[in-house]
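Q: Joint fold for the lines below.
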Amino acid sequence: MIRTLFIGLDGATFTLLDVLTQPASDGEIVMPFLRSFIAGGTRAVLRSTPNPLTPPAWVSLMTGRWPGQHGVFDFLRVAEQNGEGFTTLYDARDIRVETIWAIASRQQQRVAALNFPITAPPRPVNGFLLPGFVPWKHLRRNSYPESLYERLKALDGFNPKELAWDFERENQSLDDLSETECEAWVGYHLPREEQWFRVARHLLASEQPDLMAVMFDGTDKIQHQAWRFLESALVSSDPSPWERRMRALCLRYFRQLDQYLEQLVALAGPKAQVFMASDHGFTHSTEVVRINRYLYEKGYLYWKSSDGSEQFTRREASAFFTHLDWKKTLAYCHTPSSNGITIRIARHPGEPGIAAADYPAFRARLIGDLETLCDPHSGERIIRAIRTREEAFPGPAMHQAPDLLLTLRDFGFVSIKNLEPVVLPRPYPVGTHHPEGIFLAAGPGIVAGQRGEPCDIVDVAATLLYSLGLEIPEDLEGRTPEAFFTAEQRVAHPIRQGAPTLPVADGTRQAVEASAAEKAKIIEQLHMLGYME
Amino acid sequence: MLRVEFSIITLIEDLIRDWEITLDEPITLETRLVADLGFSSIDIVHTVVAIEEHFGRGRLGFEELLMHGDQYVSDLTVGELVAFVERKLS
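A: Joint structure:
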């Protein structure tokens, strides 16, 4: 029997959903089911991870731990070896703590988890796992059990090429996206979501797992590319035909998503508690901030001279960290999505970097310099917040995090390109992540028509475990928001704290490298998602 | 260490079995991942993970294989993969 249905909506925000669940000027409600779902349950703002980014945020949601505990900070990680920087892709082996899929499985709960990032290679569960962010060519081997893939292939209309991330399609630069390509990009996510919906529907109907979880990520992808056609304040009052088509296509996506939500909730049945959450919210960025260029101008970073090779030219185009002069650079930002700055410490005499003893003073000076990056017209700080890693990422994995975490005044992601000027207005606003996502709940035992106090993303794991009738491991950092649940529910099913989670086998890692070509492709994908200029 | 050779060739055969590619010849130590099998960069990432998972010895430090000096290699043969894994497991 399905006790708990969880639907992830990547990047979903009340900024948009509150509009789409109200009648438009023509009277249409784009998401009528979501409107009734919210009215019949509890809603709350869900505060994301310190860096509101897909991998760390979803892993926090899946584990009930902050990134300093679970160990995932970004899509990519840079490991310095032999004086060079190697790019590392985070994967499931990096997660240092138990996921709710594992916690529920070992307590005889059957689970199905679909399309969640950083779940490949899959770890065994009592049920089914089909990871997100995996190309179709590798989906079968990353399905759990592997027989799941063959089973899905027998489904009418199942198309792994539509379902999985199309790395070739996403291997386009945002800068080069024509109007036609942009339209195709949004359209591409319609069949993708349909595929995930069909898989979820199939497992819901045929397996009835105790915990059914599926994540739809088209919300995030579309909002990155098409936010200006969605946010009311940005929608043109005199749209061109193309702008009109773009908005119509975006609304079609959300209309379709609403139907999926309705059908999944109906399939789960009236006895199921249903939760929906996003990993972060969304807003728009209006300027490019070239943080490595700023570090260069302040004397912390040095660029590498071109050797004339094709490889260097390719890197120059993507302007990634390996353009740096690693012998002289003291501080740098390794990926735009990290919004972080890494300080290099010389571990041994003769190594590049600052002496360990100089770290506090060096970091304080760096923070001071970052604070002086201001808007020349208004004097406003470009970087609204600068947090040390002790503040942002406390925990055993902290040493893998950037030394400083930056929050830009418009919540954008930094650029690491070697271009001038440091701060440049964008030609048009682009979608970017906001630290406040959504948390929705409805069903038996959940208070109807309530606006709850803001929750933290780590609270979702505790909430789902409670909904399953399980004890909350004492070492989870999240809590179950009691106010979501009716008094009757809380009396009948009190929240119980239990034994700590179990250690996981992998937990720590050595560097897994990516070739330059791999790195370039991944970077280009991040381009598409708006993490780069 | 024929076991490693057999395991990696079997693994790659399994990896590509639904890739809709037609091979004129069986996979051998001379087969090149990019030129002969059409591997993309992300395919290599997943192959590395699959190999590490298969042998169950954690990360094997593939950067040593994929980096020559400060340059990244543009292709790999199956034989190079096998030799690298054999060395790491020995």
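Q: Anything notable?
A: DSSP finds 17 helices and 19 strands in chain A. Chain A has two domains: 4-120+141-170+183-281+432-498, 285-427.
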